[in-house]
Amino acid sequence: ALREGALSEVLVALSREPGQPKEYVQDVVRREKSKVAALLAHQSAHVYICGESRMAIDVEAALEAAAGAETLKALKSERRLHEDVFGIGDNSIGKPNSSG
Question: What is the per-residue pLDDT across 29-46, written as a single tens digit (0 to 9) for each?
Fold first, then answer.
């Protein structure tokens, strides 16, 4: 998809790959916060968070720290933040008005 132009950037986090240091999505978002903020500033940007609910909460917090509360609020209200999460966690994740 990257070669075909469907994706402009791919940031990889490997938490269970043998021989690789453990790194989580929220760690990559924090490390690459300037790049993440720039990517999320585009109106065509969409974010997909899939996995355990605690991870989704942590990733959302990292996205907010990187791009700001207003950007995160816009992603939610414009339905550009997509989540498929499981487990027990904060039921407000992904809802347009969850941050106030």
Answer: 999 999 999 999 999 999
- The residue written with tokens 């942590």 in the block is 58
Give the torsion sign (CA, 52, 86, 17, 28). Answer: negative
Q: Which residues contact 61 (CB under 8 A, 6 or more apart)?
A: 26
What does the alpha-carbon distance between residue 97 and residue 74 come to, in Å, rounded to a whole number?
10
Tokens, residue 46: 């969409």
CA dihedral 56, 20, 9, 42 (to 10 degrees): 30
The pair of three-digit structure tokens given for residue 37, joined into one six-digit string: 């903020």
Burial per residue of 22-36, b for 16 or more beta-carbon CB atoms within 10 angstroms, e otherwise: eebbbbbbbeeeeeb
Q: What is the pLDDT of residue 2?
A: 72
Tell me how far apart the alpha carbons of residues 14 and 23 are, in angstroms, rounded to a whole number. Answer: 5
